[in-house]
Amino acid sequence: MNRTITEKMRCMFVHFDLLQALWGEAASTATHCVNIVQNSIRGMEVPYAVWYRRTPAYEQLRTFGCAVLAYVDKVKRRKMDVKAHEAIFVGYSREKRGYRLLDSKTNKPFYSHTVVFYENKRGRINMQDN
């Protein structure tokens, strides 16, 4: 299982030439991907479906490391502030509804469910703070 997850992580890094600093996020996302596909150990059952007793939402799968625009809720912005900001898709939320994202300017993770994905475009990371 470790080899499977490691190989998926390597593919994620190579696809968008991402920083190795995101290895934790990549490991979590790779594990999620492994858990939503059929597994021969349990008779071709999907581990996610066995655990949560529902089918995974495959339409929510996205490209790791891609650029996104995350909508900023009205309560978190003023009238003339931007309505969305750039971020990088780094995974799926287990606690909340939505996606786990990394802010392109502050490099801080956050969650959002109102997101526009640019799956063919690499997300940008602010290198000044790293």
User: Mean pLDDT, rounded to whole units?
Assistant: 84
The main pleated sheet reads as: 5 strands, antiparallel
Q: How many beta-strand runs?
A: 5
Fraction in beta strands: 15-25%
Low-confidence stretches: none
Q: What radius of gyration results from the CA coordinates?
A: 16 Å
The structural class is alpha+beta
Number of domains: 1
Helices and strands, in order, run as: HHHEEEEE
What is the strand arrangement across the widest sheet? 4-3-2-1-5
Outline type: globular
Protein name: Retroviral polymerase SH3-like domain-containing protein
Keywords: DNA integration, DNA recombination, DNA-directed DNA polymerase, Endonuclease, Hydrolase, Magnesium, Metal-binding, Nuclease, Nucleotidyltransferase, RNA-directed DNA polymerase, Transferase
GO molecular function: DNA-directed DNA polymerase activity; endonuclease activity; hydrolase activity; metal ion binding; RNA-directed DNA polymerase activity
Pfam families: SH3_retrovirus
